[in-house]
Design goal:
The complex is a heterotetramer of chains A (about 350), B (about 325), C (about 450) and D (about 80). By secondary structure, chain A is an alpha/beta fold. Chain A has a single domain, classed as 3-Layer(aba) Sandwich (Rossmann fold), CATH 3.40.50.970. Chain A is about 40% helix and about 10% strand. Chain A contains 11 helices and 7 strands. Chain A has a 5-stranded parallel β-sheet, with helices on both faces. In chain A, strands 4-5 form a two-stranded antiparallel ribbon. Chain A starts with about 25 loop residues before the first helix and ends in a 21-residue tail after the last helix. The relative contact order of chain A is 0.17. Chain B has 2 domains: about 180 residues, Thiamin diphosphate (ThDP)-binding fold, Pyr/PP domains (Rossmann fold, 3-Layer(aba) Sandwich), CATH 3.40.50.970; about 130 residues, Rossmann fold, CATH 3.40.50.920. In chain B, helix 3 packs parallel to helix 5. Chain C has 3 domains: about 120 residues, RNA polymerase II/Efflux pump adaptor protein, barrel-sandwich hybrid domain (OB fold (Dihydrolipoamide Acetyltransferase, E2P)), CATH 2.40.50.100; about 50 residues, E3-binding domain (Dihydrolipoamide Transferase); about 220 residues, Chloramphenicol Acetyltransferase (2-Layer Sandwich), CATH 3.30.559. Chain C is built from 11 helices and 20 strands. Chain C starts with 9 loop residues before the first strand and ends in a 5-residue tail after the last helix. The radius of gyration of chain D is 12 Å and the shape is globular. Chain D has about 80 residues and is an all-alpha fold. The chains are: A alpha/beta (about 350), B alpha/beta (about 325), C alpha+beta (about 450), D mainly alpha (about 80). At the A-B interface, helix 5 and helix 6 of A face helix 3, helix 5 and helix 6 of B.
Chain lengths: ~350, ~325, ~450, ~80
């Protein structure tokens, strides 16, 4: 029996009390709360759109893990590179890609960030150095190492953030990538989103050694775990790892312990987890956790929350409308970009 | 270490490829070589001998035995603005990197709707004939020629070994270069530097009017020898060296076949689902009314390559097989 | 019925967890559905009150079918935009609508089996003619094996027989099992060709010269291979194509004056020769006269959609090659000049790309360069025209009754009488003439 | 520019265009274009390279001077005299 997480507070649709006065404090914690909520509402809408057959194929949601994308992306500069996985909506939104670009992609429309060709698992954005999701578990790791090799050889001080799950730790490619990165002191940070399950296989049934940070350290790189359900802890860990990698001392590994409140994907009956465990992790939901902290500090009011929810709802509705109205790629372009287009004759 | 004579009378295939890599790394600092034992050991087939001393460990990088790892890293470095040459020791080990080559290198540009190019060159040795037995004797370039998004080259001559690398590095898309293991020691006159080498078209290595022999890479010499033997018997065979296995140069093939009306395809891959099967199908599709005899294919026997010399030779396409096949097309009484 | 998986087409409602009148909120689980893979909870995406349960437990329905109707909350909130679309008479899902559209079924008239006017996939499918009985019996279209064997003739043999108008069955096959080959047909038609004569080129781009990248010396030992290819091509051209010839003399005063003045302004490397003007005029004119710009195949003219201009290039060691300038009509004089210089130079050094040897739609021979006054060419099959230009020479020329000396060129057209007749050919040449009188507009 | 230098320059340029040209045949009064079978494209390439190498601009009006080897040498020595060698 899965239930989606209740919104932080039962948002009543009261009218904004003081129009025009913008008294919201611009603290980063406030921004992070808004960013996390934005990811959650977006993905809740994706569930609806999938049920209504507007989104097809596979859909992997990160509801419950929002602290990680928001925390990690905040530690990166625009010039750093990001390599993600198929559970990438949060990473993409936190990296700055628009809801319209994501929904257009999942609707298979030309307005999508990959022109409708990639779908939920293959979001790309060259301008933001977002080198895409990858549907092959572990497939992105060697590529991230290569990107870092290029940064080092070109003498930039950019860093490559490589995000992946605990499942990828069992792939040969993790072993090869970690060893290469450490051997050549490459500026890559391995962010392992350990949500305790590789699809239907729990951590203890997929790894002989479940202390993933310990395993990563054996490759000769700095590695430590962090609380993936606390966005402030994630930001802190991410900043330290990125600075270390940027210093040139070599790669880092951060095991972000987290939990997904919904199934592996829309296609998964989620019978391998018992409800009590899910409920127990719900109590550590990163969004209400930060909300209470800001409310206690007196920097967050009911109005603020209402405004955040209203803004996000408008943004989502606009993106859905945009995606529905957007054209599909003409079939005639099917073979474009199989290989590069020949240089135009003058 | 072969003596590096300055006024070179002859150049080996291996030296031609080494010269090509040296020239590329000198001309463009984005170019670097990465692979198992390419540096200190000088390359498993001594192709990169001396490059480490000349360009240093940053640009001639020995890698651990992690094909998926360093091929994926090559892809990432290409995405990151470099122009890597990744050497996979032999096509047999490339199977460990097939996922990276297919799902990342070949696919990224199309899947990202044109945002990400992968200007990567991967070199690997291929083919049998040196009694290395089943696991070290595969000829799988036909598999890779199946994948949209890749350009597949098979340099069979010294001129191509010397000339193909630079245009391959300039290609914004991934290019795989297959070097047949038996060619490294072949020597010949140094190629004329003024003649530019393309990576788009096939070459007619021998003109002829009675039959078209289509082949590539390691079997070109056998095809030419067969043509000479046939010529003595009054049959003039045209020998086409494909040079590029994807995209196939259909125009050159069709132009020849519509003149000779008989075709023999020589391919060291296994017959079923091989490159020769694809070429045969295209010719039937586009030159059906010009065929005066069934298309013949001379391929490896469909067996794991045996170690024993006499068995390996029996399994591989030979000159006599090519001659017999040609005679079947010229005179059906043969 | 929500889509709960990539390849889910239908789902079976297992049980309802709510009943009419129950209030529901976003995210509540209101039913359980079996998807052939597992039982999955179904969420409600709106706040409201259950008004009516339409599909009863145990029924399998296609994705998109309306399972229940959620009424508005008493507080007047608008009813939830459920996935189903209520048409006047029926409730249909996108899946059913697409099926109907594909099969051309008008939904309005379709009787509904289910309660509540819900149209299911089955309702639409039983309207379609059953496919099974319309398939022809598999056996009857395969000719009995016996007759097939007797007629083992190669495709080319069949083509030659058809071209020569003889019945293939009458030809004696020389093969081991009586196979009939091209030589057999040639012998039967006594067309005089020596059996060993190389067959004719069917595709345009009459390159016979081996490309220069052939390192082996043997390519040079057979220069006659090219000579033979050209010979056979010419014999076939004369035999198959009913040529007619037209020539005209064109006053080149305006063209040469314009060219000379223009060249004086240009750097030497961009200097344009007369030949470029002649090509431009021919290409523009050919675009206007489809009867000369195309191929004659299977008894009919197939006009080309663009002007693919073949240019006869004589090779230094003898022999010719005909590279093609793609879409010549759309190229400016300067670009034609640059392309011509590049293509001819590469043709002579054997570096033509295969794309430049594709079949031209019309060919120009420019032997005028060798001082010949007029050129009457032979068409390259399957094309239907060849334009020849002689040399630009000073000739006495009457202008408004006065005698003067003018630079003129003789333009000739060899055309296929099956595709065009004299009047069309003349109109084509006159058009070239008019274009050359206003070179600046080329 | 001396006549010898001009002759050598012309011969070198002719060889660029017709690698296997028999220059000995270009004796007094022999028409270069006919002897070497130069078509208009070859000729414009010849003029372009000669202009470059001799550092002078050969106009179309001067083409007549390039008919034979002697007249061509004369053209270069005269016109290119002023230019730096």
């Amino acid at each position: 029996m899965t239930t989606t997480a209740k919104p932080a507070k039962n948002a009543t649709t009261t009218h904004r009390s003081r129009p025009g006065v913008d008294r919201r404090p611009r603290t980063t914690e406030f921004e992070m709360l808004r960013d996390m909520t934005r990811i959650r509402r977006f993905e809740e809408r994706c569930v609806e759109l999938y049920s209504a057959t507007k989104i097809r194929g596979f859909l992997h949601l990160c509801i419950g893990e929002e602290a990680i994308p928001v925390g990690v992306m905040r530690a990166l500069t625009d010039d750093d590179a990001v390599v993600s996985t198929y559970r990438e909506h949060g990473h993409a939104l936190a990296r700055g890609m628009t809801m319209g670009a994501l929904l257009g992609e999942m609707f298979g429309k030309q307005s999508g960030c990959s022109g409708g060709r990639g779908g939920s698992m293959h979001l790309f954005d060259a301008a933001r150095r977002f080198y895409g999701g990858n549907a092959i578990v572990g497939g992105g790791l060697p590529v991230a190492v290569g990107l870092a090799l290029a940064e080092k050889m070109r003498g930039t001080n950019n860093v490559v953030a490589c995000l992946f799950g605990d499942g990828a730790m069992a792939e040969g490619e993790f072993h090869e990538s970690a060893n290469l990165a450490a051997l050549w002191h490459l500026p890559v940070v391995f962010f392992c989103e350990n949500n305790l399950y590789a699809m239907g296989t729990s951590l203890a049934r997929e790894h002989a050694q479940t202390d993933l940070a310990l395993r990563a350290a054996s490759y000769g790189m700095v590695a430590w775990p962090a609380d993936g359900m606390d966005v402030l802890a994630v930001v802190d860990a991410a900043r330290r790892a990125v600075e270390l990698a940027r210093s040139g001392s070599g790669p880092c590994f951060v095991e972000l312990r987290t939990y997904r409140f919904r199934a592996h994907s829309m296609y998964d009956p989620d019978r391998y987890r018992d409800k009590a465990e899910i409920e127990q992790w719900r109590h550590r939901d990163p969004i209400p956790a930060l909300t209470e902290k800001l409310r206690a500090a007196g920097v967050l009011s009911d109005d603020d929350l209402t405004e955040i929810e209203a803004e996000i709802l408008t943004e989502i509705d606009k993106a859905v409308a945009e995606a529905e109205a957007a054209p599909e790629e003409p079939v005639g372009d099917l073979t474009r970009f199989v290989t590069s287009e020949p240089r135009r004759e003058q | 270490m072969t003596a590096q004579a300055t006024a070179q009378v002859e150049l080996t295939y291996r030296e031609a490829m080494r010269e090509a890599m040296r020239e590329a790394m000198t001309r463009d600092e984005r170019v670097f070589l990465m692979g198992e034992d390419v540096g200190r050991y000088g390359g498993c087939f001594a192709v990169s001998m001396g490059l480490l001393e000349e360009f240093g460990p940053e640009r001639v990088r020995d890698t651990p035995l992690s094909e998926s790892g360093f091929v994926g890293a090559g892809i990432g470095a290409a995405l990151g603005g470099m122009r890597p040459i990744v050497e996979i020791m032999t096509v047999n080990f490339s199977l460990l990197a097939l996922d990276q080559i297919l799902n990342n290198a070949a696919t990224l540009l199309h899947m990202s709707n044109g945002q990400f190019n992968v200007p990567l060159v991967i070199r690997m040795t291929t083919g049998a004939g040196r009694q290395l037995a089943a696991q070290h004797s595969h000829s799988l370039e036909g598999w890779y020629a199946h994948i949209p998004g890749l350009r597949i080259l098979a340099p069979a001559t010294i001129a191509d070994a010397r000339g193909m690398l630079w245009p391959a590095l300039e290609d914004p898309d991934p290019v795989l270069i297959f070097e047949h293991g038996t060619l490294y020691n072949v020597s010949g006159p140094p190629p004329d530097p003024s003649i530019s080498v393309d990576i788009t078209s096939a070459a007619v290595r021998r003109a002829g009017r009675d039959v078209t022999i289509v082949t590539y890479g390691g079997t070109l010499s056998k095809a030419l020898d067969a043509a000479d033997e046939l010529s003595a018997g009054g049959v003039e065979a045209e020998v086409i060296d494909l040079r590029v296995l994807r995209p196939l140069d259909d125009a050159t093939l069709l132009e020849s076949v519509t003149r000779t009306h008989r075709v023999v395809i020589v391919d060291e891959g296994w017959r079923s689902g091989s490159l020769s099967a694809e070429i045969s199908a295209r010719l039937v599709e586009h030159a059906f009314y010009d065929l005066d005899a069934p298309i013949e294919r001379v391929c490896s026997a469909e067996v794991p390559m045996p170690y024993a010399l006499h068995l390996e030779q029996a399994a591989l396409p030979q000159q006599a097989d090519v001659v017999a096949a040609v005679m079947r097309t010229v005179d059906s009484r043969a | 019925m929500p889509s709960l998986g990539a390849d889910m087409e239908t789902g079976t409602l297992l049980e309802w967890l709510v009943k009419p009148g129950d209030p529901v909120h976003r995210g509540d689980v209101i039913a359980v559905v079996d998807t052939d893979k597992a039982a999955i909870d179904v969420e409600c995406f709106t706040d409201g009150v259950i008004e009516q349960l339409i599909v009863e437990p145990g029924r399998r329905v296609p994705v998109g079918t309306v399972l229940a109707i959620v009424g508005a909350e008493p507080a007047g909130q608008a009813p939830a935009p459920g996935p189903a679309v209520t048409t006047a008479a029926h409730v249909t899902s996108p899946l059913v609508r697409r099926l109907a559209r594909d099969q051309g079924v008008d939904l309005a008239g379709v009787p509904t089996a289910g309660p509540g006017g819900v149209l299911h996939r089955a309702d639409v499918e039983h309207l379609l003619p059953r496919k099974r009985d319309r398939m022809p019996a598999a056996a009857d279209h395969l000719a009995p094996a016996a007759t097939r064997r007797a007629m083992r003739a190669s495709p080319m043999a069949r083509r030659l027989a058809a071209a020569a108008g003889i019945d293939i069955a009458t030809v004696a096959g020389s093969g081991r099992d009586g196979e009939i080959r091209a030589d057999d047909v040639r012998r039967a038609t006594q067309s005089g060709d020596r059996p060993a004569v190389p067959n004719l080129v069917r595709v345009g781009g009459t390159t016979a010269a081996p490309t220069a990248t052939a390192p082996t010396a043997t390519a040079e030992r057979h220069p006659d291979a090219m000579r033979q290819a050209i010979a056979s091509l010419m014999t076939r051209s004369n035999r198959e194509i009913p040529h007619y010839y037209l020539t005209t003399t064109i006053d080149m005063t305006a063209a040469t004056a314009w060219l000379r003045a223009r060249n004086r302004e240009l750097p030497v490397s961009e200097r344009v020769v007369v030949a470029a003007l002649l090509l431009a005029a021919t290409a523009r004119a050919a675009r206007r006269v489809p009867e000369v710009n195309g191929v004659w195949v299977d008894g009919e003219l197939r006009p080309a959609s663009s002007v693919e201009l073949g240019l006869v290039v004589s090779l230094r060691r003898g022999g010719i090659i005909v590279p093609v300038i793609a879409d010549a009509a759309a190229r400016s004089v300067d670009r034609l000049m640059a392309t011509m210089r590049d293509v001819v130079e590469r043709a002579r050094t054997g570096h033509l790309k295969s794309s430049e040897l594709t079949p031209p739609s019309i060919t120009v021979s420019n032997l005028g360069d060798q001082g010949v006054e007029s050129v009457l060419g032979v068409i390259y099959p399957p094309q239907v025209a060849l334009v020849g230009f002689g040399a630009v020479l000073d000739r006495p020329w009457a202008v408004d009754g006065m005698l003067g000396v003018r630079p003129v060129v003789t333009a000739s057209l060899a055309a296929d009488h099956r595709a065009s007749d004299g009047a069309v050919g003349a109109r084509f040449l006159n058009h070239i003439d008019r274009l050359l009188q206003r070179p600046e507009e080329l | 520019m001396t006549p010898e230098h001009a002759r050598e320059l012309i011969e070198q340029t002719l060889l660029d265009i017709v690698p296997d040209a028999d220059l000995a045949a270009l004796t007094q009064g022999v028409d270069i274009r006919e002897e070497l079978e130069l078509d208009s494209l070859d000729f414009v390439a010849l003029v372009e390279r000669l202009s470059e190498r001799a550092g002078l601009r050969i106009e179309e009006e001067d083409y007549g001077e390039l008919r034979t080897m002697d007249s061509a040498v004369r053209l270069l020595t005269m016109h290119a005299a002023g230019s730096s060698a």
